[in-house]
Write a structure and sequence with these properties.
The complex is a heterodimer. Chain A contains ten helices and 15 strands. Chain A is of the alpha/beta class. In chain A, strands 1-2-10-15-14-11-12 form a seven-stranded mixed beta sheet, sandwiched between helices. Chain A has a six-stranded mixed beta sheet with strand order 4-3-9-7-5-6, with helices on both faces. Chain A has a two-stranded parallel ribbon with strand order 8-13. Classes of the chains: A alpha/beta, B mainly alpha. Chain A: Pfam families: SpoVAD (PF07451).
């Protein structure tokens, strides 16, 4: 049997882990978007009955994990490990959610690429035979991210045309070695790519090269053409990042159009006040755990390449004049 | 070799910058300017009405100006607390940042934001997190101008 590694950055799974269930919880604005009805729960406000936004975000993550476990007809005790992360310092949303669930946690930080990172690692753990029931989850909250990375939320700051709106959303999937549902067949670990972009209010432009680099590596490593997939979906490049990615595809000789889109572009309506589109870990997470996996279950989508993109700077590194390093991980999800 | 690589990287980044600038939509400068002009103008007009009212009550111009500032700061703080000022700032930009009301907004927004971390390490420590630079450099400039005045007068 040949090994599981293909090319330089890609792995294929011999016993592709099954996504037996998924759950998504989103904030009020995401609920008003075009996919609002696909999410398991739409919160009426940003507090979720908690005293702080941070607690609300952690609760969203915790409840999404619980719901996913429930939908897989499992008990919380059955889960052997949670792979989770978020945008906040020391990934507190994931830490506190795992504390309340009292389950083993492997905390991750891949900024907004965390959904793909946790799926990728979870699939490796399951296919590797280390665990058979794993949860991969992530969350973001508009206000917690805003106050950590930008300004106090009540401050009257004018956004630019390139500014993206951090999604308030959490998503969780249960990965199992056996069962029915879409399977994770391959994954590509992304390189950190930095094209010297320094504008914190234009993250899409910073992340687009990382996304294209990973997609190219994935296709090269597996010797696949883009139309192998019904849909190649980046995480949160937004309108401008997506437009740039499309230009870069042409330069690199890959043309996934018209099967290419971006979660940050899809999550909100044209008339919602989000400027260049959505961003944040929850953006890719809720789109995957809501509409995409549902469409796969229904059979209207068969082969998906999810490429979640993350910008890996911190406010400190930005104030010190550093540019924005970015990463993108790709996960192939297929339904037979 | 390493130098060459660095140079190549620079060229690549420069080219990428050009691509970004080509794709990026132009900011709506005219619209932003009109919003800033109108909102900034309205804030100042309101303040002028208040000042004239106080002067009409027989106050000196200087006293009336102080009271006017206090009232404008109060109104901005109230609007921030009600969640209105940030909506205004989104559209008006400099129009609502430059007047004294913008300064009040920056302080009250920080105070509200960090209240959840307590009054000492939250509000107390972070209240000037946005307005701080204005104060520091305002004080510094005031000090040097004061110094200058002493020398010129002597």
């Amino acid at each position: 049997m040949p090994g599981k590694k293909r090319g330089k950055q890609t792995v294929v799974f011999h016993n592709p882990p099954v996504i037996t269930s998924s759950a998504s919880i989103v904030g009020p604005d995401e609920g008003k978007g075009p996919f609002g009805s696909y999410f398991d729960q739409v919160l009426p406000d940003y507090m979720f009955g908690e005293k702080t936004w941070e607690k609300a975000e952690s609760k969203m993550l915790r409840e999404a994990v619980k719901l996913a476990i429930n939908k897989a007809n499992l008990k919380e005790d059955d889960i052997e490990v949670i792979l989770a992360g978020d945008l906040l310092n020391q990934t507190i949303s994931a830490n506190y959610a795992a504390r309340d669930l009292s389950l083993p946690l492997l905390g991750l930080y891949g900024a907004c690429s965390t959904m793909a990172e946790s799926l990728l690692l979870g699939a490796m753990l399951v296919d590797g035979g280390f665990f058979s029931k794993v949860v991969a989850a992530t969350s973001s909250h508009h206000h917690t991210a805003e106050r950590q990375f930008r300004f106090p939320t009540e401050q009257g700051v004018q956004p630019t045309v390139t500014t993206q709106w951090t999604a308030t959303a959490a998503g969780a999937v249960v990965l199992q070695s056996e069962g029915s549902g879409p399977r994770i067949t391959a994954a590509t670990v992304g390189k950190v790519v930095d094209m010297g972009q320094k504008d914190m209010s234009n993250m899409g432009s910073a992340m687009a090269p990382a996304a294209v680099d990973t997609i190219k590596a994935h296709l090269d490593d597996l010797k696949r053409s883009p139309d192998y997939y019904d849909l190649i979906l980046t995480g949160d490049l937004g309108k401008i990042g997506k437009a740039i990615a499309e230009e870069l595809f042409v330069v690199k000789g890959i043309v996934p159009k018209p099967f290419y889109n971006d979660c940050g572009v899809l999550l909100y309506d044209e008339n919602q006040d989000v400027n260049a589109g959505g961003s944040g870990c929850g953006c890719a997470a809720c789109m995957l755990c809501g509409p995409l996996l549902k469409k796969m279950q229904e059979g209207s989508l068969k082969k998906l390449l999810l490429v979640a993109t993350g910008a890996l700077m911190s406010p400190t590194s930005m104030f010190q004049g550093e540019s924005i390093p970015c990463v993108a991980h790709a996960v192939a999800v297929e339904m037979n | 070799m390493e130098e060459q690589n660095l140079e190549l990287k620079n060229i690549e980044q420069k080219e990428y910058d050009d691509l970004v600038n080509k794709v990026k939509p132009k900011p709506p400068v005219l619209k932003n300017c009109i919003w800033a002009f109108v909102v900034g103008g309205l804030i100042c007009t309101l303040a002028q009405f208040i000042q004239n009212y106080f002067m009409g009550l027989g106050m000196s111009r200087q006293d009336a100006a102080s009271y006017t500032s206090i009232i404008m700061i109060f109104l901005a703080a109230l609007a921030t607390g009600l969640g209105v000022y940030d909506e205004l700032g989104k559209r008006a930009g400099a129009g609502s940042i430059v007047p004294i009301t913008g300064f009040a907004n920056a302080i009250v927004a920080s105070a509200m934001e960090f209240k959840r971390e307590g009054y000492i390490f939250g509000v107390g420590a972070r209240i000037f997190s946005v307005a701080g630079p204005t104060l520091v450099f305002g004080f510094a400039v005031a000090f040097f101008i004061g110094l200058l005045k002493v020398f010129i007068n002597s």
